[in-house]
Amino acid sequence: MPQLHRRAFLGLAGAAGAGAAAAIAGFSAAPAWADPTFADNPFTLGVASGDPYPDGVVLWTRLAPDPLAVDGMGGMPPRVVPVAWQIAEDEHFRQVVRAGAERATPELGHSVHAEVTGLRPDREYYYQFRVGTHLSPVGRTRTAPAYDADRRRLAFGFVSCQNLPAGHFTAYRHLAEEDLDLVLHLGDYIYEGPGAGSIGRPHLPATEIFSLSDYRIRHAQYKTDPDLQLAHARFPWAVTWDDHEVENNYADGTSEDPKQSQESFRQRRALAYQAYYEHMPLRRLSIPQGPDMRLYRRLRYGNLAEFNILDGRQYRSDQVPAGMDDPSRTMLGSAQEQWLLDGLADSTARWNVLGNQTVIAQADRDPGPGKRLSDDNWNGYAAARQRIFDGVVERGVENMVVVTGDAHCSMVADLKQNFDDQSSRTVGVEFLGTSITSGGNGAEMDARGTEWLASNPHMRFYNGRRGYVRCQLDEQQWRTDYRVLPYVTEPGAPVSTRASFVVESGRPGAQVDVA
Fold it and tell me: Rounded to whole angstroms, how far apart are CA atoms 90 and 102?
């Protein structure tokens, strides 16, 4: 940034005053640090933005001059630190349109969540933070269109499952080069285990994590990856979690470990949820309340698309090997399930998008007359899935597209109202996206892919490579491109489009795009 604009920022930030910031940032028992100084860069974790509205976005950073400090505090003292921000219409900050300050408190790991308002809809903006004499990297973001806007086109990407020891985050560097309005992260942002891997990216701490300091260190370790930082700084994100942000395959208040009591697990969940909030560009409505955190929400892109961001982990019934068709079992919980169906019924958007954690299509792995289904994805909650699908039909919902993570592979499926009757109504399409690195390099085809394609005629495609998914939609058509890498265990892999599918508005079902 030119020196002139840097000086202007310093003066503007000081003029913003601590009073307004304190009114929106809550309280802290710690003393204030009015004139903070740092020997090292306090912005080691980069910057991010998220949850765009027509009039604003959330701007995020976390102060951490020593991001992997063993106490989880990132090298910060137990003091409240004023952090200034500014947002402009140009990357040189000659046209600053909003500025303010937030208080970074030790209670929230010195994270910053600035909810900026007063912006123009459907506009690109640039933002930056300052603390003391230190300036953060510059981030770029974009507001959503007005709710009633006639938005003609939209491009977004979706990702999931980034296991640091399993591979390099090269996919994020390629994602950052795309022309996108939004990125969805559909879960497994971190992994909680002690994995070391074999490529020189071992987890810290080198054990399974349980404490708040452990979760903070693990998040900070992931956030120091330059490719991940680049993708965060390039686009606004909308995030949701799956299981590894807390513990593998947990369900509501129940641990996968039968020896752990519900009380002790809920304490662990509360700590993991807090660390998750501290490291994500989330609005204040998602501030955790103990072991509870509101994460399901909607984002609207004019009349073109409405995103329903789901939480398929916090409210679900426990997994069971038998009785998966029990109608009392729930994936979303009754409140979220009703919220989803009501929102779909009221939607006036052309495309109704579900940001979903686990496979929702029937995914049988037994090519014979029997069925072999996972009990951790929607196949283990068949009655809950049926309620959603029947509700979509009853409410006349059109153009439902489900984007999904978790499974470490790419898959396309038509969603049938009755999967056992392939002549039944197609209620939507599922695009399952592969992992960023989880599972290592992967392969074009594996045993699961062979079994899925042989056993599920509604499935149209399978691939086991790593990468991300790019979606481009307009009033007539949705196009999905599967962007894959040949390897992740070494840096620098190229990216290519493995397959593309289209969905025509008003014609449910995916078709291969051979153009």
Answer: 22
Q: Which of helix, strand or coil describes residue 43?
A: coil
> Does residue 59 contact residue 244 with C-beta atoms inside 8 Å?
no
Beta-sheet pairing, 507-512 with 496-504:
antiparallel
| Contact predicate 381/329, CB 8 Å | yes
DSSP 250: -
What pLDDT, on a 0 to 100 scale, did the predictor assign at position 6? 45
pLDDT at 58: 98
Query: Token pair of 315, please?
Result: 């409210």
How far is residue 170 from each of residues 186, 230, 500, measured CA to CA in Å?
Answer: 18, 11, 21
* Contact assessment for residue 127 and residue 141, using Cβ atoms and an 8 Å cutoff: yes
Two structure tokens written together for 449: 């892919």
C-alpha to C-alpha distance for 64 and 314, rounded to whole angstroms: 29
Using alpha carbons only, what angle is made at residue 197 by residues 173 and 314, rounded to the nearest 5 degrees? Answer: 75
Where would I find the beta strands (DSSP E) of 169-313? 182-185, 236-239, 297-301, 305-309
- pLDDT of 515 reads 63
CA–CA distance, 379 with 364 (Å, rounded to integer):
9
The alpha-carbon radius of gyration of the chain (Å, integer) is 22
Which residue ranges form the domains of the chain, and what is each CATH number?
3-142 (2.60.40.380), 153-512 (3.60.21.70)
Burial 176-195 (b: 16+ CB within 10 A, else e): bebebbbbbbbbbbbbbbee
Question: Mean pLDDT, 10 residues at a time, over the chain (515 residues)?
Answer: 40 35 59 91 98 98 98 97 98 97 96 98 98 97 97 97 98 98 98 96 98 98 98 98 98 93 96 98 96 98 98 97 91 98 98 98 94 97 98 98 98 98 97 98 98 98 98 98 98 98 96 82
Report CA 440 to chain centroid distance, whole Å: 21
Q: How far apart are CA 84 and CA 16, in angstroms?
A: 8
Instruction: Take residue 378 and report the two structure tokens written for it.
Output: 């929607």
Answer for the pair 256, 237: CB distance below 8 angstroms, yes or no. Answer: no
Q: Which 8-state DSSP code applies to residue 292?
A: B
